[in-house]
Amino acid sequence: MNKRASNRLPEPWGSVIDRDHTISFQFEGKDYRGYAGDTLASALAASGQWLLSRSFKYHRPRAALTFAGLEANSYVQVGDRPNVLADLLPIADGLSAVGQNYLGSLNRDYAIHAGRLARFLPVGFYYRAFFRPQGIWPLWERFFRRAAGLGKINPNADPGYFDKQYLFADVAVIGGGPAGLSAALSAAGAGAGVVLIEEAAMLGGALNYARFQRERSEIQSLRDDLVARVQANDNIRILAGATCTGWFTDNWLAIGRSNRLYKLRAKYVIACTGSVEQTMVFRNNDLPGVLPASGVQRLLRLYAVRPGKQAVVATANAEGYDAALDLLAAGVSVQAVIDINRSVANPQLAERLSAMGVAVHHSCTVSEAIPGAGLRSITGVVVNQLTESGEVTGDGRKIDCDLLVTSVGYAPLGQLVCHCGGEFIYDDDVNSFSVRNCPPDSTLAGSVNHRYALEAVLADGRSAGLDAARALGLDPAAAADAGPDPGAAGINHPYPIFPHRKGKDFVDFDEDQTVADLQNAVADGFAHAELAKRYSTVGMGPSQGRLSSLNALRIVQRYNGGILAGASVTTQRPPFKPVSFGVLAGRSFEPERLTPMHEWHADHGAVFMPAGMWQRAAHYAGAKDQAAAVAEKIAEEVATIRGNVGVIDVSPLGGIEIRGPDAAEFLNRMYTFAYQKQPVARCRYLLMTDDAGGIIDDGVACRLGDEHFYVTTTTTGSDAVFRNMLRRNAEWGLEIDVLNVSSTYAGMNIAGPNSRQLMEQMESDIDFSKDAFPYLAALQGMVNGIPVIAMRVGFVGELGYELHVPWSNALTLWEQLFAAGAGFDIRPVGVEAQRILRLEKGHIIIGQDTDELTMPRDAALDWAVATAKPYFVGKPAIGFSRTRRQSRQLVGFRLLNSNGPLPEESHLVIHDDAIVGRVTSVARSAELGQVIGLAYVAPEQARPGTIFRIKVDKGLEVAAQTVQTPFYDPENLRQAL
Amino acid sequence: MPLALLKYGFRRKYKGDKYFPAARPLKDTYDVVIIGGGGHGLACAYYLASDWGIADVAVLEKGWLASGNTARNTAIIRANYLTPAGALFYEESMRLWRSLAGELGINLMYSERGHLTLAHSDAALRTSRWRAEVNQHLGIDSELVGRDEIAKLCPEINLSEEVRYPVLGALYHPPGAIARHDAVAWGYARGAMHSGIEIHQQTEVTGIKKHVGGSIELETNRGSITAGTVVQAVAGMSSEVARMAGFKLPIRSIPLQACVSEPLKPFLDPIVVSGSLHVYVSQSARGELVMGGATDPYPLYSTRSTLDFTERLMASMLELFPFLENAKVLRQWAGIADMTPDFSPVMGLTPISKYYIDAGWGTWGFKATPVCGKCMAELTATGKVPDLIRSFELERFGRMEQVGERGAAAVGH
After folding, report:
1. Distance from CA of A908 to the nearest CA of B (A)
2. Are strands A163-174 and A96-98 parallel, antiparallel or unpaired?
3. What is the pLDDT of residues A782-798, one digit of tens each?
4. Hey, are the CB atoms on A80 and B341 less than 8 Å from each other?
5. Closest Cα of chain A to B352: distance in Å?
6. What is the distance in angstroms between the Cα of B358 and the nearest Cα belonging to chain A?
7. Which residues of chain A have a CB within 8 Å of the CB of B133?
């Protein structure tokens, strides 16, 4: 390990580090050591390494500011993880991190010279150039894209594990600082179940490092007492090290901890999210060595890191004086306290500091920090007098220092509240944003609510907890109104912005935006704060404006002449802090549905294909890569059904039962055909259209009783059809029940000329003879002791029985069928063969042979539309469409030359160079010895015998002839055997 | 360093480059009032002046300029639509896009990155081939590509077959582009303003009356004004404004959400879309991944964000790009999409004479900004519906002559 300067303070400094456990890690390839409890940023700071990364535009050096994970300044790259907050990342043995966004090395970034070009890169400079002559931008863009971005993604990164957990709470308290602890205790005390969410590993918030203008020991014992009471309370569940990143409608909270996303539904939410210290604006205010008071105090108290040797404190409030006292206690020499108010913010503390030999000045400000080598540190500051109106005046005086601490006020961390309706409004009373319009069943407490004095914060938390108890009905009498904090107005300086004529007075450290950039945006006409933001990009970086939007609004309103009080900023959007894709995604849940016979298929050489959520057996060729073998197998499966007997697993079909006195009426309204007079024990075709008359589903209705139908749906349509039925009946109020039984029944279609003989070998109370079980009959009974609904339908055009069987019995019956059929050489048949079989019969597949505008007439399905019915969904549109000219017709066709180029599905039908239709299905039929298909053609081409042209690959055209369907067995004799 | 920037550096004092005028009083009457100061309304205003010399025009915007869907869309531009009417319309838009930056004098960062629509099922492959065939027949650069070609065009996509929905192929549209959406509105606004057209922000139309003489009276929060002709271009609120005017639109308004990642060093060149997984993504010149998916499942006039949107979208993103699990979502937001039954827009005449509509832009409006603005300006100036938008008139629903684009527009981008 290299010898390095150690900035580590002795005990008792450092409440979160464990000096007995030393940890070794690397940054930028160099070895470092820190203690357990250190973050990467604190351990590096302890070793004198402040610089972490480089800024987006000018590659300015970036060091952590708040040490609370609130700004992108502390972004580093850790292995495959880009943009990791170094001030929240615990160090661990073997950890290796590097800085981001530099060219060359982190310390010597040659892109730093971009800063010298700043005068040529005014706000929105990229809109003003790079586009002439036409077409030049893509060349410039390559350069811009090389310069863009922060961290790096490794396209070969290994996947990790992420998961999710649901939580419920009476009261969710977000934030474990003094307000949150006190709110949790008071709500829990009233009997509420509380979940307390704290981002840091340790509860206590500001109680862990701040003084609240008292002695630190007093605050520490208060903190220890509160935390102990919270930890001992059985009604409080603590989620520490967890960040609430989103607050959605109805108190639905997203909370990330490590690789887990908690989703918490709370009856009541108390946001004790605190506030973030704002930056002071002056020249070089972004350099390492310039730190906010809260950052300095966290470094000292939590990590025992001394942030410098010689400090200057620039302050507008008592917190700055507190920080000066802390620095003195830590052995840092405080050169001066610069109070930017007209008179000192806290005379008592000022006197105390003076007594300790610290010069306290008021009515003056730091106007500039003087950079050290490579801008990596500061060597001093320039202090100027302020005029009565707060303008910098005089030549200024230099004070040497290596640390400038600023304390000019806070912005509430109310972003979460704004995710679901809250608003940030500039409030003159507190010189900051106030959070307005808290969502129902929630409240704010603590500094997010502009309570800063310790008593006010604790009382506000207590009061919020009682509010929650009252809202939940736990303690109806609970009443406490803590009232405002009278000292709040003195905390936030109204305009801690001191523009410098030489610039580098940064408002937004993510985007390198200066005062002049905002001023110029306003001058360009982007006067509305929102437009100025979008034009300048201020607040759009990864810090999401937490440290910049308050100052930006102050500046924009000053230059556009607008009124600051009541002004609002852009709606704050989730997440509060960036959330990893992995945490949001969790374990990918993309279930597959498998039929009860799936394993059987796999054992018999099935190759599967996806069909919606299902995996279906495409064919049984054993492998899919040998095209000739596959084609031969499919042909064999087709021949099995045409000449013998085969079984198709049709379990993925949807099934819905409709029962009740109005069942037939319900079907009459849902579907186009007529069902009132459908006899019991018969099947009827189902065709469903939408309000515009477009076909959306089809199936078969089996009437099992006067008031009982079992209907099938397409595989991919079943959920939508069921949902549609529920919605429609909510409107109609018919006396029926609708039950989705899609996964109650499996299905198998036994088809082929030998299917009756096969069925007659099964033990059954169903008479499968032609007379007892004719075509389109639907019977219920037992087969081999298994209850079935059996129907005779003709999708593949042969004698056949479709059996719908309870899911759990399906495999048994399937195996028994194959045992009984061994003598017939029975075969399983896949989807590919079924597609050919149905095409030979001219049957359509919804979604393949139809699109959302296909009406029954277009698909030659007018026979299934009962126009005499008073109403069905789509009837008005279908009726109207019949008064209009038809634009296309689905027809069967055959290719004139079966040996030429083959059309594919979606190839276009062209007439006089215009698109008149397209092929929707096509296959080579061995049975018919030709290539057949279905296609949309112009109505005048629909007459059988008409020749039309299909444009195939490479612009070639082939001739096809319209053919009457069915292609196979046109008299439909075979299915009715 | 381009010359255009030198002048800023060598000037002692910053010389403003005025985009918008200071607010001024509303006049009593205008020849033309455009309701809606988004990209479409501003483009229409610009072309009214530049193509037709009509400058007595007021654009009324209830919020700040381009604060609606122009600010919220994901800025994808393409022409690989399914119907000849749609494809030709968007193709003309792309032609206008290419020269637009020069015409408006602002860098729109129009970048033809190539556009891949992945197919994970037989059905999606069929639709892709259908679109490719129609596009090619009309001369639009678009083709069906296989897995090998996808691997070359975008090696980052997970082409493993061991995933739930393996990629089977894709529709590839080389001219598919992205642009800087805000700049488009600003450029049109500046151009319109320089011709004397008035743009009024924070000016909301609250009532619409038709006078016997033919003029139209608009009540606003700043008093009432009379217009010779009105153009309505208020995506997200089309039905409500039309209702004020006294007619109905066949539109359902549904939230469409989107999000961006933190800036990452650019690694993704083309625009990638997957209909089956409901995701689309491109990487901007800032390095942010811009991502979106399907519209929300129910109609709503609220632009709230939801958690399930990002949960679902990120699951899909990781299916396609598993190595992105440590990338982070920076911000999510929502806009309101005016969905029509056929997934095509509504442009042209309404039941009210001299009141023209530009609506029904669902999830596909940004890319049409130039061509729609130009056509609406022509309609406003001449009273005649340009051929390019004739198929999209409101009356088509009454005649059952819909322009079915579901297959090309179901994923919102």
Report:
1. 7
2. unpaired
3. 999 999 999 999 899 99
4. no
5. 24
6. 23
7. 906-908, 918, 951
Length reported for chain A? 977
A753 touches chain B (CB under 8 A): no
pLDDT at A475 over 90: no
Mutate to test the interface with B, among A62, A131, A245, A920 (most CBs of B within 10 A): A131
The residue with tokens 């911000």 is B331
Q: CA A834, A837, A842, A844: dihedral to nearest 10 degrees? A: 0
Cβ separation A592–B317 shorter than 8 A = no
pLDDT at A1: 38
Instruction: State the nearest Cα–Cα gap between A575 and chain B, in angstroms.
Output: 6
CATH number of A495-566: 1.10.10
ipTM, two decimals: 0.96
- If DSSP codes are grouped into helix, strand and coil, which group holds residue A568? strand
The set of residues, in sequence order, having a beta carbon less than 8 Å from that of A526 and lying 6+ positions away, is: A532, A534, A535, A536, B19, B20
pLDDT tens readout for residues A159-211 = 899 999 999 999 999 999 999 999 999 999 999 999 999 999 999 999 999 99
The CA distance from A188 to A198, in Å, is: 17
User: Does A527 contact B at CB distance below 8 Å?
Assistant: yes
pLDDT, greater one: A5 or B211: B211
Q: Could you tell me the CATH superfamily of domain A654-741?
A: Aminomethyltransferase beta-barrel domains (3.30.70.1400)
Homologous superfamily (CATH) for B112-176+252-339: D-Amino Acid Oxidase, subunit A, domain 2 (3.30.9.10)
Helices (H), B34-144: 39-52, 69-72, 84-104, 122-137
Architecture per CATH, domain A1-156, reads as: Roll (3.10)
Gap between the Cα atoms of A361 and A396, Å rounded: 13
What's the CATH architecture for A279-408?
3-Layer(bba) Sandwich (3.50)
CA-nearest of B240, B250, B232, B263 to B348 is: B232
Distance of alpha carbon A585 from alpha carbon B322, whole angstroms: 11
Q: Which residues of chain A neighbour B164 with C-beta distances below 8 Å?
A: 588, 590, 592
Q: Is the pLDDT of residue A730 over 70?
A: yes
**Which residues in chain A are contacts of B119 at CB distance < 8 A?**
none
Query: pLDDT by residue (tens digit) across A431-446?
Result: 999 999 999 999 999 9
Q: How does pLDDT run across B372-392, given as a tens digit for each residue? A: 999 999 999 999 999 999 999
For chain A, the domains span 1-156, 163-276+411-490, 279-408, 495-566, 630-653+745-850, 654-741, 885-977
CB contact under 8 A, B330 and A535: no
Nearest CB partner across the interface for B327, out of A82, A160, A907: A82
Q: For strands A194-198 and A163-174, give the pairing.
A: parallel
Identify the three-state secondary structure at position B382.
helix
- Mean of pLDDT values over A568-584: 94
Average pLDDT over residues A502-528: 94
The residues pairing with A889 across neighbouring beta strands, listed in sequence order, are: A937
- The verdict on a CB contact (< 8 Å) between B101 and A134 is yes
Q: Which residues, in sequence order, are bridge partners of residue A654?
A: A713
Closest in B156, B261, B266 to A145, CB measured: B266
Domain B26-75+181-250+342-409: which CATH number of 3.40.50.150, 3.50.50.60, 3.40.30.10, 3.40.50.1000: 3.50.50.60
Residues of A in contact with B182 (CB under 8 A): 534-535
Q: What's the CA angle centered on A257, arms A252 and A261, to 5 degrees?
A: 45
Between positions 924 and 963 of A, the ones with CB within 8 A of B are 951
* Residue of chain A whose Cα is closest to the Cα of B124: A848
DSSP per position, B27-39: PSEEEEEEE--SH
Q: Is B182's CB within 8 Å of A951's CB?
A: no
Asked if pLDDT for residue A478 goes beyond 80, the answer is no
